Amino acid sequence: MAHTRRTKARERALQALYQIDVAATDLDEALARFWPSFEPVEREVREGAEELVRGVANHRREIDEVIEQVSTNWRMDRMAKVDRNVLRLAVFE
Q1: How far is CA 58 from the centre of its chain?
Q2: In this predicted model, what pLDDT tens digit does every residue of 26-82 receive, in sequence order?
Q3: Nearest CA to 63 among 53, 73, 49, 50?
Q4: Do residues 36 and 79 make contact, with C-beta atoms less than 8 angstroms apart?
Q5: DSSP state of 39
Q6: Residue 75: how many CA atoms within 13 Å on its side-chain side?
Q7: CA 40 vs CA 27, 46, 52, 90: distances in Å
Q8: 10 Å Cβ neighbour count for 3?
Q9: Model-level pTM?
Q10: Ramachandran category for residue 73: left, alpha or beta (phi over 0 → left; psi -120 to 50 → alpha)
Q11: In the 3-class helix/strand/coil scheme, how is 18-62 assigned residue by residue?
């Protein structure tokens, strides 16, 4: 995937993760609601973003444990939603 597409995929993944965190909805339902807001989206961008989102979702417990182990005086529920999802995405990658 080209650099700009990868960057766009990460941006969309972060936005989707934030939406999922706020709405606390089912992953597939959240993604189905998310994409119409950004159409048209290149296939590679969408596939890359969904791969990241699903990866974070599938490993969220382990990712959150890693983040909490190195976050002095910060529990996941105290972090801003954007911050914790940036960290989740970074740990997953």
Answers
A1: 11
A2: 888 888 888 888 778 899 999 999 999 999 999 999 999 999 999 988 888 899 999
A3: 53
A4: no
A5: -
A6: 2
A7: 21, 10, 19, 26
A8: 7
A9: 0.88
A10: left
A11: HHHHHHCCCHHHHHHHHHHHHCCCCHHHHHHHHHHHHHHHHCHHH
